[in-house]
Structures are given as C-alpha cells and as structure tokens.
Design brief:
The chain has 131 residues and is an alpha+beta fold. The radius of gyration is 15 Å and the shape is globular. 37% of the residues lie in helices and 24% in strands. Helix 2 packs parallel to helix 3.
Length: 131
Amino acid sequence: MRMELRVCKHCYNGEHGNERKTAVSRDMVGCAERIREYKDLIGIDALYITHVEEGDTGGAEALPAIIASIENNQIQLSDTQLVMEDEEGNMLVYPEPEDILDVLTRNIDQIADQTRQDVTVELSSEAAELM
C-alpha cells in the first residue's frame, strides 16, 4: 500500500491566518511523519507528504488522484487530501480533514500495537475537536 498526504503549504505555514486550519494541517503532517517512520510494521510501502501551493494542479506528487468540486461554476481542486493505493491499484481518497485524521490516527494505533516504542502524536485541541 502507498499513501500520499497533501496539505496546503500556506495553511501549514500559517500564512492564511486561520489558526485552526494551521493546527490541523500540522497535526496531519505530524501523524504522517510518525507513520512513515514505522510504515514497515503495518505493511505500508511508501508514504509521501506533499505541500501543495496555489496554482498546483492538485499537487499529485506520487499518486495520480485529484479531488475536485464545482463552486460558483468553477472547478475547485482540493488542496488537502489523503490518497491511498492498495496492492491492486485501487485508490481511496479522503478530502475531509476529519476523515484524514481518523485514517492517520488509526494507522498510528496499529503501529502502537506492533511496537513497544511510544508512537503517540500529541494532537492540537483543534484536531481533537474534529475527532
């Protein structure tokens, strides 16, 4: 299985002025980094973390799946999403932050079951509210 977490670079860096989104973006990246450290324990082949900038065509670095919606008759690309590809090439895409955090924290729980190391990731209060 391969995974790619895409987050808005500007949200992650706090450049949009939305502290809540910044905290959640940083928590998602923190979880993904922890999973990447221990990915072999739970059968993940690769985990990519991509920081997407405005104007990117969806930011697909490794997995070619992009979420789009239509708002005011214009196509809007989702800048934050988690893409997973299984061994058969099936793609799962999670565009909602709550779902992304849920998937990532479940993977951390699976890792915790496989090791004696402390793999917990402290989540912000903003991320905890989403879960």
